[in-house]
Amino acid sequence: MNENYRLVKDYSIPLDIFSDAxxxxxxxxxxxxxxxxxxxxxxxxIDFIVAAVKDPSNLFAYLLIMVCLAMMFRxxxxxxxxxNNIIDTVKExxxxxxxxxxxxxxxxISTISDGGVDxxxxxxxxxxxxxxxxxxxxxxxxxxxxNDQIKTLEYDRYFLLLNGRxxxxxxxxxxxxxxxxxxxxxxxx
Length: 189
Description:
Helix content: 40-55%
Structural class: alpha+beta
Number of strands: 7
Strand content: 15-25%
Number of helices: 4
Radius of gyration: 23 Å
């Protein structure tokens, strides 16, 4: 590692912390948009209900009511389904070990261990296992330049390191000392 790092730490993310952190990310960036769309579809449904009451023979209004209700349900259901799918995927990964390196002007996050996922099947040959290890390496190191896009949100059990609105990194507080957590807090100061 380089000498200009203020913090270098290995950590893993327990599944319950990942689940809670992903829910926090959704509350900040996903749910507000979904609630707006749900309200729009709700208002449209009410408008179509009024139209259906005024003219009960208007079958198109009944169809549009059902479409609006289905769209409201979709806006409510999809984020929850996506969260469950991601949590199931993370559960299958095992417990990988990550390395966090914080320098003065950049942050590096890398996977240093695959978490002991058993890639061997009972009928897999040694050649197949060598092939998997050779062509399925650990992900490349992620380097984030510290700028206005980087935000750190602190919660009781973890930090969310946000890179814009589309990517985030979870750093659990478990295993970090107070001085190490102060380095994380000082990222965007």
